[in-house]
Amino acid sequence: MALFPFLCYLFFIAAYHAKADDALCDNNIGNYTSNSTYDNNLKTLLSSLSSHTEINYGFYNFSYGEEPNKAYVIGVCRGDIEPNQCRTNLNNSIGYLREQCPNQKEAIVWGGDFTLWYSNRSIFGLLETSPTLYLYLQRNTSYVDQYMQAVANLMRNLTAKAALGDSRRKYEADSVFETTSFETIYGYVLCMPDLSSQQCTDCLNAAISEIPNCCNGKMGGNVLKPSCRLRYDPYRFFNSTIVLDSPPSTNNTSSGQSKTGTVIAVVVPVVTVVLVLILICIYLRLRKRKQFSKANNGAYEDGDEDEDEITIVESLQFNFDTIRVATSDFSDSNKLGQGGFGVVYRGKLPNGQMIAVKRLSKDSDQGDVEFKNEVLLVAKLQHRNLVRLLGFSLEGREKLLIYEYVTNKSLDYFIFNPARRAQLNWEKRYDIIKCIVRGLIYLHEDSRLRIIHRDLKASNILLDDGMNPKISDFGLARLFVIDQTQGNTSKIVGT
Ligand SMILES: *[C@@H]1O[C@H](CO)[C@@H](O)[C@H](O)[C@H]1NC(C)=O
Ligand SMILES: *[C@@H]1O[C@H](CO)[C@@H](O)[C@H](O)[C@H]1NC(C)=O
Ligand SMILES: *[C@@H]1O[C@H](CO)[C@@H](O)[C@H](O)[C@H]1NC(C)=O
Ligand SMILES: *[C@@H]1O[C@H](CO)[C@@H](O)[C@H](O)[C@H]1NC(C)=O
Ligand SMILES: *[C@@H]1O[C@H](CO)[C@@H](O)[C@H](O)[C@H]1NC(C)=O
Questions:
Q1: 272 C-alpha vs ligand 5 centroid, how far in Å?
Q2: What's the Rg (C-alpha) of the chain?
Q3: Could you give the domains of the chain?
């Protein structure tokens, strides 16, 4: 591990134990004089960093000037940060860095979602595992062993994947559900992408082995090193990773040639993939046909389809105990509301996914087979303005429907309350109305089935984070045997 004496390091994540804008500068060695060649090279280098708009993968490695006054810089962002945001974050931190660590020949800043590191020596492709900065969340877990074990496993899995990243990105983020503490732990790992796989693995393994020193029993923590860093927390703090389009071109020739190079690089894999897929399809079809004709003398003309449907039904079926655990045994504290067909509970699946579970009132006469068939039909209805049915669960006379969880409650919660009503301006209301209509058109005209909702009302319009509406409870009439002549039908045929 190389010594790193001329270091100045800072960090800012307000939520953390460290104060916002915490600066720790080591000022003992390695100052440069103002207006020296190095100073000017560094200034030029740093100020040009955000001009590299051609880079779309969040890694900036540049140098400027001649030895011995050459300045080197590396800036890297988490894989979920848009290139524009990344450049802005890096650029914004430069002023802060120079103010906190004036005249330091080498300095590093760990931001919440980026690392910026400059030096007067070449730092490209260099593995530096010290110094290390630890940060942790104040909250403690009551299940230290299980929680920390889950964190370590998550980090090891992420490391294995991140190390395989190419020279543009070595970053991986995911979550894991820890069953004893009932927490979903979110985490990411990141290496400087110009490291080799082995260097990345070594750096992250070192960081993982330090988690117990840093953050034992803490529900969240950061281990920050120059070449790599990791973080875990009991809440989601990253977005989905931005997909990088094509693999990096290996030879950078003149622009004309590199254009053809790109076209070939894209077209060849696409053609290959399509060909391979077609071959696989043909092969599977032939094989299936063969199996069917062997067993049934070819009697099943559309056997494929039936088999597919059965597989789908099975993948839609959730284990009853899983759902019982997910909703803490249908506890009152998880109750979201009471609908026309039963009570709705909030739940959390072992993989951390939030769900809404509708426990159907037990007087449905429908048999299991019909019920499964109807669930299959309704689950096929997918539209962004419909609450998605994820599956079902059966046990004895218990029937459960499992839906995606929509965060912002229902429309009635907003429009019938004077304070909350104010959050909805007319523009937003108009948007909501348009989206509801889109959902209805889909149900009435564009879906495979024609579904008439029969109970559309504000409490059946759920709103997501972005206040986008999703219609709920559609297709439920199909899941119940409803006698049209019965008096209580009016209960579900609403507004
Ligand atoms: C470097 O500069 C800082 C102030 O910017 C000063 O406190 C420190 O003593 C200097 N170190 C050396 C070795 O000159
Ligand atoms: C920096 O140095 C150059 C020449 O070496 C000089 O012309 C300039 O005035 C100096 N600037 C400052 C701010 O000292
Ligand atoms: C970078 O930051 C500087 C000052 O903080 C600002 O003047 C400049 O416009 C920024 N550059 C970009 C591309 O945002
Ligand atoms: C967490 O535990 C530490 C000691 O292990 C204690 O000092 C700290 O106050 C605890 N934090 C909270 C938020 O309870
Ligand atoms: C800068 O990074 C890119 C992408 O990782 C890499 O291909 C290139 O060789 C690096 N440049 C230097 C000078 O290390």
A1: 29
A2: 29
A3: 1-260 (3.30.430.20), 277-480 (1.10.510.10)
Cβ–ligand 4 contact at 121 (below 6 Å): no
Residue 157 to residue 146: CA distance in whole angstroms = 17
Whether 455 sits among the annotated catalytic residues: the reply is yes
Max Cα distance, the chain (Å): 92
Task: Single out the residue of 110, 121, 14, 10 nearest to residue 73, CA to CA.
Answer: 121
262 lines ligand 4 (CB under 6 A): no
Beta bridge mates, 71: 64
CB atoms within 10 A of CB 342: 19
Averaged pLDDT of the chain: 77
- Ligand 3 atom nearest 95 alpha carbon: 5
User: What is the C-alpha separation between 326 and 316, in angstroms, rounded?
Assistant: 16
Given 21, 455, 473, 483, which residue is catalytic? Answer: 455
Ligand 5 atom closest to the CA of 63, numbered from 1 = 13
Q: What is the pTM of this model?
A: 0.55
Least confident of 250-259, 298-307, 345-354: 298-307
> What angle do helix axes 303-316 and 255-296 make, rounded to 10 degrees?
100
Of 176-180, 227-231, 452-456, minimum mean pLDDT range:
452-456
- Determine whether the shortest distance from the Cβ of 333 to ligand 1 is under 6 A: no
Q: Taking the CB of residue 5, how many other CB atoms lie within 10 A of it?
A: 11
Q: Is the CB of 139 under 6 A from ligand 4?
A: yes
